[in-house]
């Protein structure tokens, strides 16, 4: 008796960032991520370490783009269609201290949204490798 063939739908559902949607669900799905990004971007704009960098930014646009990106990174059904991280941040001369300040603001926003520490760390672990595309050298 041969084993059944792999169903054709298996290949279709194997989209790269959504191998597992547990983190997406822990973050409260699209509505929770949207709330989190709203709070987070408000903190970035108010942070004296970062406010200069975001002074001329379109904050509503940034909130929307981040919501799509984080939704995808967390394993949700979104597809981030914005520019890649290297292109989005080139010529900004971003330093490691600014990247770390942004991570602190994200942690504060996640605390404020009542997101569990374990869940916070899972999201941060997926964002950390992006430093290579974002920090200038
Ligand atoms: C893990 C860290 C980061 C992530 C995931 C991230 C993500 C993004 C995304 C998705 C966009 C929108 C790109 C688009 O317009 O389509 C963006 C834009 C931008 N980012 Fe970042 N970023 C990070 C770190 C930083 C840091 C450290 C700074 C500066 C201190 C920064 C400054 C900016 C600015 C100024 C924009 C343009 C916003 C606008 O005018 O719309 N980012 N970022």
From TrEMBL:
Pfam families reported for this sequence: Bac_globin
CDD domains associated with the record: TrHb1_N (cd00454)
Keywords, alphabetical: Heme, Iron, Metal-binding, Signal, Transport
Residue intervals passing through the bilayer: none
Name of the protein described by the UniProt record: Group 1 truncated hemoglobin
Originating organism: Curvibacter cyanobacteriorum
């Amino acid at each position: 008796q041969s084993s059944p063939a792999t169903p054709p739908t298996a290949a279709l559902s194997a989209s790269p960032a959504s191998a597992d949607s547990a983190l997406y669900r822990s973050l409260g799905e699209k509505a929770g991520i949207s709330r989190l990004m709203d709070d987070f971007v408000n903190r970035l704009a108010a942070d004296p370490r970062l406010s200069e960098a975001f002074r001329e930014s379109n904050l509503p646009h940034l909130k929307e783009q981040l919501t799509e990106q984080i939704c995808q990174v967390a394993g949700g059904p979104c597809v981030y269609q914005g520019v890649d991280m290297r292109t989005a941040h080139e010529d900004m001369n971003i330093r490691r201290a600014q990247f770390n300040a942004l991570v602190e603001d994200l942690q504060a926003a996640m605390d404020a949204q009542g997101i569990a520490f374990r869940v916070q760390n899972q999201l941060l672990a997926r964002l950390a490798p992006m430093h290579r595309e974002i920090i200038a050298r």
